[in-house]
């Protein structure tokens, strides 16, 4: 068993609010995967493992994508259906596949062509509980559920809408430094507060813009060779941990599975939240970004109001440095991989204008699959940039 | 007119669930009975464009998501009904007082809120038991 697996390349297709005719989910996935392999300095024929996550790939599955993309023979193949947790779920498996020698070069790719019709189909038929108990309310999509959760968090932590605004405006500032983000224009706290309410206390800017796009990473057993647009630097996977079904959907939703998974990840990596130079948390709603930062140990619950203003709002704590889903966009199942790609770029030193100086350690979280009220899955990866 | 909402109760350990499960998370049992949800207490409310209110309601210890076209506030006692509440949904019709032993007391003017997919269903086997399959396969 090898000690470590390495991320040696990554790519993100441009995100678009309204996909051009002819753009397909499978096309986006292959575009991201090929670009990631190219940045790693590897050939398409080097790939012997493929992991795929997508809401809209059907009727195809991972094996269809592999065949249509001209890959193979492969010694490792997986498909993950767990939405915002799918990227790290795949990474948890892929890391072990590399270390055990089951595969030597694995591409993990996530993405969707998420136009209005696809989004409506997704949110109305998300799962059986949604079809039977939520869609008939009627609600379409999770905004109302997370409005209720945000109210609960505001009460528990003594927060106001303005406090959450620091997450939104800071991520918009980061997005301004990311040419790939769909919303890059600066946003003031007043503009955030004045935006139309979608489901009080959630306003327009508390909700992610659905986009079309795909994200991919490449894992190998050894350090990188510099490819086109690549860095020649590798990012070592120090730990990946998952917790699923922590509260049976029946608690307050303010604690995610990270409260169990993160301590395991810190123990395995020998690091802690305060060692992290960059953080990427799954920001489907600002309340969930905050909940995960608390569960990681990056923010103390009792200091939340102060830290939102003084650490997040000022960007002193580098969180979601590509703008996150809230400003870069939520490309369906790619939403979890977006943070992995950005953290790779930061730790490889190729994050351009938004590069965090001397970034060596990074943490990425995933969260997702709302069963009835809350996301059931949470996971965390600790990564290290190495020369 | 709407009927009362029903939850699922494990016949082994009496744990109450909604939405219904295939096996009990508390004890692993797979035999259930249906019980009236009874009145609930609103914990949070939000409002969607168009005016529909979506509320967190706790009843029999279970937190469920309900809707109502009219204003309702946190802390209010409500009657849970199985289809969108209409003019005929008096508290009596919603069987508010059906479970006085286990649920919070609702006032006689309790407002009705909609809990979709909660109508009493015909009892049905959730799955074929393993024992049955083994018996069929034994020569």
UniProtKB/TrEMBL annotation, chain A:
InterPro entries: Thiolase (IPR002155), Thiolase-like (IPR016039), Thiolase_C_2 (IPR055140). Residues 249-371 form the Thiolase C-terminal domain. Coiled coil: none annotated. Transmembrane segments: none annotated. SUPFAM superfamilies: Thiolase-like (SSF53901). Gene3D superfamilies: 3.40.47.10. GO terms for molecular function: acyltransferase activity, transferring groups other than amino-acyl groups. This is Thiolase family protein. It comes from Herbiconiux oxytropis.
From TrEMBL, chain B:
It holds the Pfam family zf-ChsH2. It comes from Herbiconiux oxytropis. This is Zinc ribbon domain-containing protein. InterPro entries: ChsH2_Znr, NA-bd_OB-fold. It comes from the Bacteria. Residues 7-33 form the ChsH2 rubredoxin-like zinc ribbon domain.
């Amino acid at each position: 068993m090898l000690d470590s697996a390495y991320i040696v390349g990554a790519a993100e297709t441009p995100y678009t609010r309204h996909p051009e005719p002819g753009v397909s989910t499978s096309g986006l996935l292959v575009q991201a995967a090929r670009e990631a392999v190219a940045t790693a300095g590897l050939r398409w024929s080097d790939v012997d493992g493929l992991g795929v996550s997508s809401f809209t790939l059907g009727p195809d599955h991972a094996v269809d994508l592999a065949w249509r993309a001209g890959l193979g023979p492969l010694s490792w193949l997986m498909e993950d259906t767990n939405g915002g947790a799918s990227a790290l779920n795949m990474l948890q498996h892929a890391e072990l596949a590399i270390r055990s020698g089951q595969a030597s070069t694995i591409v993990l790719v996530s993405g969707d062509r998420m136009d209005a019709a696809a989004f409506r189909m997704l949110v109305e038929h998300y799962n059986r509980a949604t079809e039977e108990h939520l869609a008939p309310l009627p609600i379409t999509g999770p905004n109302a559920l997370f409005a209720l959760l945000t109210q609960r968090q505001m009460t528990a932590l003594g927060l106001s809408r303005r406090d959450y605004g620091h997450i939104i405006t800071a991520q918009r500032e980061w997005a301004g430094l990311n040419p790939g983000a769909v919303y890059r224009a600066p946003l003031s706290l007043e503009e955030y507060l004045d935006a139309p309410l979608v489901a009080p206390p959630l306003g327009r800017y508390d909700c992610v813009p659905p986009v079309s796009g795909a994200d991919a990473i490449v894992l190998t057993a050894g350090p990188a060779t510099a490819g086109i647009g690549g860095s020649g630097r590798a990012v070592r996977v120090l730990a990946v941990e998952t917790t699923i079904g922590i509260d049976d959907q029946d608690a307050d939703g303010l604690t995610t599975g990270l409260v169990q998974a993160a301590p395991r990840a810190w123990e395995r990596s020998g690091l802690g939240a305060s060692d992290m130079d960059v953080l990427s948390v799954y920001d489907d709603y600002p309340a969930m970004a905050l909940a995960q930062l608390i569960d990681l140990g990056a923010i103390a619950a009792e200091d939340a109001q102060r830290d939102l203003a003084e650490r997040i709002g000022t960007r002193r704590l580098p969180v979601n440095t590509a703008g996150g889903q809230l400003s870069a966009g939520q490309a369906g199942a790619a939403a979890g991989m977006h943070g992995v790609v950005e953290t790779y770029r930061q730790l490889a030193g190729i994050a351009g204008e938004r590069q965090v100086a001397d970034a060596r350690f990074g943490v990425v979280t995933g969260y997702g699959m709302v069963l009835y009220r809350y996301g059931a899955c949470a996971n965390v990866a600790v990564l290290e940039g190495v020369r | 007119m709407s009927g009362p909402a029903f939850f699922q109760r494990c016949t082994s350990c009496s744990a109450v669930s909604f939405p219904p499960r295939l096996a009990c998370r508390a004890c692993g049992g797979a035999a259930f009975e249906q019980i009236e949800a009874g009145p609930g207490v609103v914990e949070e409310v939000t409002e969607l464009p168009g005016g529909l209110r979506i509320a967190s309601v706790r009843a029999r210890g279970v937190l469920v998501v309900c809707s109502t076209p009219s204003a309702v506030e946190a802390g209010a006692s409500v009657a849970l009904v199985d289809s969108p509440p209409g003019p005929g949904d008096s508290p009596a019709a919603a069987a508010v007082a059906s479970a006085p032993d286990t649920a919070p007391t609702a006032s006689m003017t309790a407002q009705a809120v909609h809990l979709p997919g909660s109508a009493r269903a015909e009892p049905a086997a959730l799955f074929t038991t393993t024992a049955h399959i083994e018996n069929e396969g034994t020569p």
